[in-house]
């Protein structure tokens, strides 16, 4: 009787397809005590008699959220191994969903990358290949250090938000108001370890006299690249940024696109299009939430304190203001 495909290494961890469950003699010989089923199906309960069984009902499609199940799957696998038995992880073909779940477990246990985890699995089961969507989820899981509580992780919440935007775009609808993520409202919880650019500018409307309403800091700008050169598009006519709380009244109206007004003086400062918009550099930005460079001014702000506590200092007194003849310092 052929043996099961054991993941290379010290662990009694096995991977296979649905038909593996019918190889009763191999299961017994391998000491399998726990079975993790990663697929959507109506199970024949007789197949699981004598096993601890956990089911994760997901399809093998790119937009399926398997990431949310990683912590529970890891816990189940670890419980089986701690009990001294073997653990079988299977899906329909033993190729994509099961491989993704095993990769996630190896990443958390050993601190390895997705590539390293998959290479270890392929030593004994070369056909394993997570689909593109699952692979991106593994990369995200690795980037946030494989947390046990993934639901409250800011990066995971942003990823869910992007999925909502993609769904809304596919349906040609604006996202539901309660699902819009206003990034400045999450600033405190994400202040540590952020990958956003450091705060170096304040973008604000500048009337005369020079007192204005702060619209955004560079923390919330979204970089994109010019289509022809691939270089950062510093010469573009718009700044693209995340949704911010001062835009709430407009963005929650359920419109696909519209204008953004300064909340202080109601001047037109930009526009938005949930389905995306084309920048002057030729790149297509989704969603397109932008401030027109010709309608705002950049004000340098002081850097963060050396303590790294994220305390923002008042802006410097030097303000660069666009004029008809060029620039003047105020």
Could you explain how this protein is built, in words?
The chain has 330 residues and is of the alpha+beta class. The protein has two domains: 5-145, Protein tyrosine phosphatase superfamily (Protein-Tyrosine Phosphatase, Chain A), CATH 3.90.190; 187-329, no CATH class. Helices cover 24% and strands 20% of the residues. The chain has eight helices and 16 strands. The protein has helices at residues 24-29, 70-82, 97-110, 114-122, 132-143, 154-170, 187-190, 248-251; strands at residues 5-6, 13-16, 32-38, 52-56, 86-90, 201-204, 214-217, 238-240, 257-261, 268-273, 277-278, 284-285, 288-292, 297-300, 320-323, 326-329. The strands form five sheets. The protein has a five-stranded mixed beta sheet with strand order 1-2-5-3-4. A hairpin with a 6-residue loop joins strand 1 and strand 2 (13-16). Helix 2 (70-82) crosses helix 3 (97-110), helix 3 (97-110) crosses helix 4 (114-122) and helix 3 runs parallel beside helix 5. The longest helix has 17 residues, at 154-170. The protein starts with a strand and ends with a strand.
What is the structure about, briefly put?
Its EC number is 3.1.3.48. The protein has 330 residues and is of the alpha+beta class.
Tell me the strand percentage band. 15-25%
Overall geometry comes to elongated
The overall pLDDT, averaged over residues, is 84
What is Rg?
26 Å
**In which order are the strands of the major sheet placed?**
1-2-5-3-4
Helix content: 10-25%
Class inferred from helices and paired strands: alpha+beta
How many strands, what sense, and barrel or not for the largest sheet? Answer: 5 strands, mixed
- State the end-to-end CA separation: 84 Å
Low-pLDDT residue intervals, each spanning 5 or more residues: 192-199, 304-330
Helix tally equals: 8
Number of domains: 2
Secondary-structure element string: EEHEEHEHHHHHEEEHEEEEEEEE
Domain Tyrosine-protein phosphatase: 5-147
Family: Belongs to the protein-tyrosine phosphatase family. Non-receptor class dual specificity subfamily.
InterPro entries: Dual-sp_phosphatase_cat-dom (IPR000340), DUSP12 (IPR016278), Prot-tyrosine_phosphatase-like (IPR029021), Tyr_Pase_AS (IPR016130), Tyr_Pase_dom (IPR000387), TYR_PHOSPHATASE_DUAL_dom (IPR020422)
Keywords: Hydrolase, Protein phosphatase
């Amino acid at each position: 009787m052929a043996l099961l495909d054991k993941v290379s290494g010290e662990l009694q961890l096995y991977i296979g397809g649905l038909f593996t469950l019918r190889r009763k003699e191999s299961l017994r010989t391998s000491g399998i005590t726990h079975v993790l089923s990663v697929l959507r199906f109506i199970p024949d309960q007789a197949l699981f008699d004598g096993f601890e069984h956990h089911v994760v009902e997901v399809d093998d499609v790119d937009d399926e959220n398997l990431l949310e199940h990683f912590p529970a799957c890891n816990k189940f696998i670890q419980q089986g191994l701690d009990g001294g038995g073997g653990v079988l992880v299977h899906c329909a073909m033993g190729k994509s969903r099961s491989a993704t779940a095993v990769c996630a477990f190896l990443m958390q246990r050993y601190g390895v990358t997705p590539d390293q985890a998959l290479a270890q699995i392929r030593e004994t089961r070369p056909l394993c290949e997570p689909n593109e969507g699952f692979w991106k989820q593994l990369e995200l899981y690795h980037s946030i250090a494989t947390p046990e509580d993934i639901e409250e992780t800011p990066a995971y919440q942003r990823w869910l938000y992007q999925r909502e935007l993609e769904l809304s775009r596919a349906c040609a609808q604006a996202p539901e108001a309660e699902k819009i993520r206003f990034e400045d409202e999450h600033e405190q919880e994400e202040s540590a370890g952020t990958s956003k650019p450091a705060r170096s500018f304040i973008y604000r409307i500048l009337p005369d006299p020079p007192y204005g309403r702060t619209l955004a800091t560079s923390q919330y700008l979204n970089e994109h690249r010019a289509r022809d050169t691939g270089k950062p598009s510093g010469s573009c006519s718009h700044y693209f940024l995340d949704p911010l709380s001062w835009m709430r009244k407009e963005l929650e109206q359920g419109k696909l696109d519209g204008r953004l007004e300064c909340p202080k003086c109601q001047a037109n400062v930009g526009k938005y299009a949930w389905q995306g918009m084309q920048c002057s550099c030729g790149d297509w930005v989704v969603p397109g939430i932008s401030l027109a460079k010709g309608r705002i001014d950049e004000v340098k702000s002081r850097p963060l304190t050396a303590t790294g506590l994220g305390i923002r200092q008042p802006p410097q007194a030097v303000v660069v203001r666009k004029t008809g003849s060029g620039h003047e310092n105020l």
